[in-house]
Amino acid sequence: MTRALLLAAALVASAGAVLVQAETRPDPAQAALDGCGSERIAVIQKEQPNWAYVYDRRTSASDPPPAPQWVEGRVRAGGESPLAAHPTGVDDPFTHDAYDFNVNVLPDPAFSFVLSGDAAARTGNFNGDEEELARLHMEREELGLPSAVWPEQGDRVQALGSWVWDCEHFQSGGSKTEFHPLRALWVERRFSPRSPSGESEGDLWYSNAKTPAGVEADCAHRTKGDRAAFHACLPNEERVFDGSTVRTFALSPPASHASGATLRVRLVKVAATPGAPIPEVRIAGGEAHVALAVSSTRGRPIMLAYEIFLGWTPTPVRLRPLHLGVSLDRLLVRRAMDPSCPSTQPTCPFAGETTQLSQIATAPGEWAFYADVAGIWAQLRPLVLRVHDGQRVRLRYHVDLYVPPGKRWRLFTFTRECDFGRPTFDDPGNAVYPCPRSGEFGNPVGDDRPGYLVAPGSVGLHVTNSSLDGSTCPASNTRGCYRLTWKVRKG
Q1: Long-range contacts at 107-111 (CB < 8 A, ≥ 24 apart)
Q2: DSSP per residue over 304-316, as a string?
Q3: Contact, 46 vs 92, CB < 8 A?
Q4: CB under 8 A, 24+ apart: contacts of 224-228
Q5: Strand ranges of the sheet holding 245-251, from the earlier edge strand across to the other edge
Q6: Burial of residue 218 (number of CB atoms within 10 Å: 0-12, 13-18, 19+)
Q7: To 5 degrees, how large is the angle CA 389–CA 433–CA 44?
Q8: Taking Cα atoms as reference points, which of 282, 208, 217, 288 lies closest to residue 243?
Q9: Residue 298 gets which letter from DSSP?
Q10: CA nearest 438: which of 460, 407, 417, 453?
Q11: Of 30, 76, 183, 357, whose CB is crowded by the most CB atoms within 10 A?
Q12: Could you tell me which of 217, 75, 80, 280 has the C-alpha nearest to residue 159?
């Protein structure tokens, strides 16, 4: 089946929702009509939703919520930002159990309807100049989304998600639409960083777990602006989405191959719950076709994650990718970001630690440190680094990387400092994963962000400073709040 036929089949299978709504982009002004509130205190007190479905025209309590939507496009950030895909730097602990992983997608023209607002008027998704500008922002809590399927900047994706308004993040240009939570994800890699023979790689993930975002959107649908009813709905709402999901994805093989070579496909399980369906994989028309078929789950949680590799056998040495060994060796922490100054004394002795004032926090800092090597993601262990100013941390992280001739790759790291020791959406006594439980309480704006690091990949020893861009690292730290020593050698 061709890609055009696959797309047509997907549109028909969506019960007409896409065909009806694809004609015009949603107007940001309709967010309130769909159930959004915008009062932060009411969100914290669980009286108003943080997320509400787009085009939620419920007429009775028995009406089902709007169906999830599919989107196809490229993982690419707005405004030339390197933050096309990354762990979130900030998440509200009152509406999360774990921190999100964020993906910004430039939708294909056929799916541009998922963006709200107007480009000329700079409203909705076209307002601002950050990574989400003119992009569909997609989020899913880290727990249950294995890092093996996290996309890299430049990858193509197909994604199924709850199409919602991001209610609380109202800006002067009006509310934005996003997919939150993601429910299914297909990632077609620019190249496979994991294949020694240079195979193509596609990664497939599915989960019917709602996460707090899904619970809030469904309760917003059921209660439609009734604050008391919304508050009562949250602890009693079902925690899994019901319904079936059927879709087929196509994976193209590497273009170059030896005469007489045979096309072969491999399916590698990353993770799956007991009883989860196994994707059906077959070769037809010179492509691998990967079928996802999930029947009605009737309240049973399901998650699956698989890597699919497609390549030619045999592969001559001249067509094999370059084998590299990438090691992250040492982390110099210039500023641990705890403690901070009170708002009444912004020039206190800790002024160089963070721009986030009035935190209830003490040293050490608690950092989550993530690394992306050409699309191979990992959160370095221990999951929480307890750091002080001037500390040198031995990382001992190594990964084998396979890069086809002529392909560029990058190292990207991302950090978050835990400022909230509790509560979470479901448990007032716990901290949002992976942060530790503590007595700390951060600035209402959110957690500290030590900064990201991005560098082109090349053989040799490298010493790279983190960026101040988008961080809460004070500008007085001209070389950033941390430095990474890393090396690349031919394998």
Answers
A1: 107/71, 107/72, 107/73, 107/136, 108/72, 108/73, 110/7, 110/22, 110/72, 111/22, 111/70, 111/71, 111/72, 111/73
A2: EEEEEEEEEES--
A3: no
A4: 224/35, 224/58, 225/35, 225/37, 227/42, 227/47, 227/48, 228/47
A5: 245-251, 287-294, 280-284
A6: buried
A7: 100
A8: 208
A9: T
A10: 417
A11: 183
A12: 75
**Mind listing the pLDDT tens digit for each residue in 453-467?**
999 999 999 999 999
Look at residues 301, 101, 297 and name the one whose alpha carbon lies nearest to residue 187.
Answer: 101
- CA neighbor of 120 nearest in space, from 134, 109, 131: 134
Separation of CA 381 from chain center? 20
User: For 297-330, what is each residue's pLDDT tens digit?
Assistant: 778 999 999 999 999 999 999 999 999 999 999 9
Nearest in space to 211 (alpha carbons), one of 40, 420, 50:
50
- Fill in the amino acid letter for 230: F
* Residue 388 identity: H
pTM: 0.93
Predicted confidence (pLDDT) per residue in 415-428, tens digit: 999 999 999 999 99
Cα-Cα end-to-end distance for the chain: 39
- CB atoms closer than 10 angstroms to residue 274: 6
Q: What is the dihedral of CA 157, 158, 163, 164, to 10 degrees?
A: -10
